[in-house]
């Protein structure tokens, strides 16, 4: 599926917000690296609407190119 690169990720860094970590629902686009934090508590309907819009905005994100490893010895 084309939208599987948008995930809910509790393990990564979160933007500085005025909410405790347990009151955040972090979403991330694995292609461009963008993160969005939804404040909790919120209704299930609101979480679904916001998540759907976030996925829609990142649907066309292309994976970042992987840079080749550098040789430190030259």
Percentage beta strand = 15-25%
What number of structural domains do the residues give? Answer: 1
Mean pLDDT: 81
Low-confidence stretches: none
Q: What is the number of strand segments?
A: 3
* First and last CA, distance: 41 Å
Description:
The chain has 74 residues and is of the alpha+beta class. The protein has one domain (1-11, 22-63). Helix content is 19%, strand content 19%. The chain is built from 1 helix and 3 strands. The protein has a 3-stranded antiparallel β-sheet, covered by helices on one side. Strand 2 and strand 3 (35-39) form a beta hairpin. The longest helix is centred in the C-terminal third of the chain and has 14 residues, at 44-57. The N and C termini lie far apart (41 Å). The model has no long low-confidence stretch (mean pLDDT 81).
Quick synopsis:
This protein has 74 residues and is of the alpha+beta class.
Q: Features of this protein?
A:
1 helix, three-stranded antiparallel sheet, 19% helix, 74 residues, 3 strands, alpha+beta
List the helices and strands and how they pair.
Blueprint: E1 6-8, E2 24-29, E3 35-39, H1 44-57
Antiparallel strand pairs: 1-2, 2-3
